[in-house]
Structure formats: C-alpha cells, structure tokens
Amino acid sequence: MRIRWHGHACFEFSNGDTTIVVDPHDGRSLGIRPPVASANTVLMTHDHYDHNASRVIKGEHKDLKFAYGLNEIHGGIKVYGYESWHDHNEGAERGANTIYRFDMEGISICHCGDLGCIPSKGIIDAIKGVDFLFIPVGEVYTMEIPEVKEFIELVNPRIIVPMHFMVGGLSFRLSSLDKFLDIIPNESVDFIGNELEITSADLPENKECWVFDH
User: Fold this and answer.
1) Of 73, 114, 203, 213, which is most buried, counting CB atoms within 10 Å of its CB?
2) Which of 65, 67, 63 is nearest to 79 (CA)?
C-alpha cells in the first residue's frame, strides 16, 4: 500500500488499481499546493471548504460525505463511517464530523477528519488498536493537545500520524507540529517524507509517530 500526504488533512491511499483520497482541499484557498491525485473514491469527513474539494481529484470517483455506517467501495473495500463532532457542543458551533475506518492490504486505517472532541465509547471501541490513526493536532477548530493525548491513549494505535497543523503559507493560524510532538517521546518519532510504501510486515512492534512532509 502507498500512502501520500497532500497537505493539511488530505491523504491518498492506493493499492493496485484502487485509490482512496480523504479530505481533499483546493490548495489555493489555503495558501498551499493543491493535491495532484486520481482516485476511485473520495471520502470527505465534513463539508468545510478545506476538506470537501473533491472536484480537484482526477478520475471517475465515488464521493462520500458524512457517510455513516458501512459503505462498500471500489475493490470491495469496506469503509465504516462514524458520526462525531467538530466541537464540544454536538456540532452546534461547527457541525458534524465523520471518522472513517477501512482496511487496505491487511492494514487498518482510521482518519479522524476535524475531530473536535473525544467520541463515544462505542466509536472508541470500533477504532481501538488500528494500525494507523490520522489525527488533527493544530488545536484551532479541533481538539486541544491534552485531549488529543487522551484520545490517543484510548485508541492505542500502532502508528500515530499528525495532520491539520500549521505549515508555511497556510492562510489561517493553527498550532505548530512541535507543540504536538512535545507529548511524544523523541525516540518514537520518525520523519518519513511525502509518501511511503508499506506492507503489514513492515508495521512496527511498538507505538510510533510518523510525520509526513508535504
């Protein structure tokens, strides 16, 4: 499986002729480079402009937004969508959010979108122990770092991937990646570049934090 980061919360997952892009942005509205990707399926965790620009993704793709429950997509992959919130007031401030979980090549992936608060125990149980947890760490519009830390401890993923943090050129302020990394042991952090190829045999035995660079 190949994983590529397109900046902000946009990630591309591909295996053979199946490609999933999650939370595409158009780049220009954010002040960063737009995604360059073609996909069969585009998953959008919510309807904000920096997460819902499916129009920029090439190819004939099925678009899923707020896709709660079980969704079967290209390649027979089963995507589970879990309703969550963009704030601490059940969406009253910023609306609903979707947590997506799916498996590709025997590797379990959970993308949290703009998660604004720790979700219910039922959702925690459904995503507990995933191989990859993609989690927003920029604090503005999403959980603050102490809550992020608690969420990670509850889910206990094998690999933590931070996203949705401040980068050069971004047109709005988020917290820096360094603030998040302060809660992660130095020996557990690996800076891996823009993309990686991985099989289930490559997964680490101990919990790690993998940082992508766009």
Assistant:
1) 114
2) 67
Alpha-carbon span 204 to 154, nearest angstrom = 19
Which segments in the chain show pLDDT lower than 50? none
- Residue found by looking up tokens 């992959």 in the block: 77
* DSSP of 18-67: EEEEES---STTTTSPPP--B-SEEEESSS-TTT--GGGSBSS-EEEES-
- Strands 132-136 and 96-104, how do they pair? unpaired
If you ran DSSP here, which 8-state letter would residue 75 be given? Answer: G
Per-residue model confidence as pLDDT tens digits over 48-104: 999 999 999 999 999 999 999 999 999 999 999 999 999 899 888 888 999 999 999
- The distance of Cα 191 from the centroid of its chain, to the nearest Å, equals 17
The structure's pTM equals: 0.96
Distance CA 128, CA 19 (A): 24
Buried/exposed code over 47-81 (b: 16+ C-beta within 10 A; e: otherwise): ebebbbbbebbeeebebbeebeeebebeeebebbb
C-alpha–C-alpha distance, residues 72 and 59, integer Å: 18
